[in-house]
């Protein structure tokens, strides 16, 4: 991603553009580059911020979706931001949901794509073959509709991560935290506009998860992305961005 990562006051993030603030939240195995096409599309009209969630920095005993939500709260206060649009993929969507329930006054709207929070079928409880490159490649390909989206660069990065013992312990702890933290009973509290942009072939958070979010979130819309898995903004960026643009136009440019 061809943007400078800023480090200030213990936060790492990229920030480009001016206007209404969009805050993009990556997933558990995600990188800032997952949002590259989204940043490119919207930086001319909006102020786009992508914080690096401190998955590998927070104390292991407190690591969970709630601690990441508190980090997001500190980040928004540091940037003096309110009334932001939160856009989250996978774990990032879950963090956005937890934060919105606790601090709805900070959030103008929420966009969820392949979000956890109800159900997810991720790596599972462990990486039994984490030293096996082909196994990791297969797991990364599982994330997408088209295996070609799982580039060698992406597989190499995941392989490196899951073979770092301290990192994999944190990933597993956070994945278990996300699975335990089911939000079904809390979603009715979120009354701001929510756009669900979901891959029709998502195997990690399948279509039924999107339908359940749609039923439980009182002010939501559901948009399907065909030939797409768990990360629409990576696999079908043009379709994802079109849905996002229409949603933003409707809620921000009234």
Q: Can you describe what's shown?
A:
Strand 7, helix 7 and strand 8 (220-225) form a beta-alpha-beta unit. The chain is 39% helix and 17% strand. With 254 residues, the chain is of the alpha/beta class. The mean pLDDT is 91. The chain has an eight-stranded mixed beta sheet, sandwiched between helices. It is globular, with a radius of gyration of 17 Å.
Tag the structure with descriptive keywords.
single chain; 254 residues; alpha/beta; eight-stranded mixed sheet; 8 strands; hydrolase; hydrolase activity
What's the SSE blueprint?
Elements: E1 6-8, E2 11-16, E3 21-25, H1 36-42, E4 47-51, H2 65-78, E5 84-89, H3 91-102, E6 107-113, H4 133-142, H5 152-162, H6 165-180, E7 194-199, H7 207-216, E8 220-225, H8 232-235, H9 237-252
Parallel strand pairs: 3-4, 3-5, 5-6, 6-7, 7-8
Antiparallel strand pairs: 1-2, 2-4
Helix pairs in contact: 1-9, 2-3, 4-5
Question: What is this structure, in a nutshell?
Answer:
The protein has 254 residues and is an alpha/beta fold.
How many H/I helical runs?
A: 9
Query: Any low-confidence stretches, pLDDT <50, length ≥5?
Result: none
Question: In one word, what is the shape?
Answer: globular
Oligomer: single chain
> From the alpha-carbon coordinates, what is the Rg to the nearest angstrom?
17 Å
- Count all strands and give the number: 8
SS content category? alpha/beta
Element order: H for helix, E for strand: EEEHEHEHEHHHEHEHH
- Helix coverage percent of residues? 25-40%
Describe the largest sheet.
8 strands, mixed
Query: What's the average pLDDT?
Result: 91
Percent range for β-strand residues: 15-25%
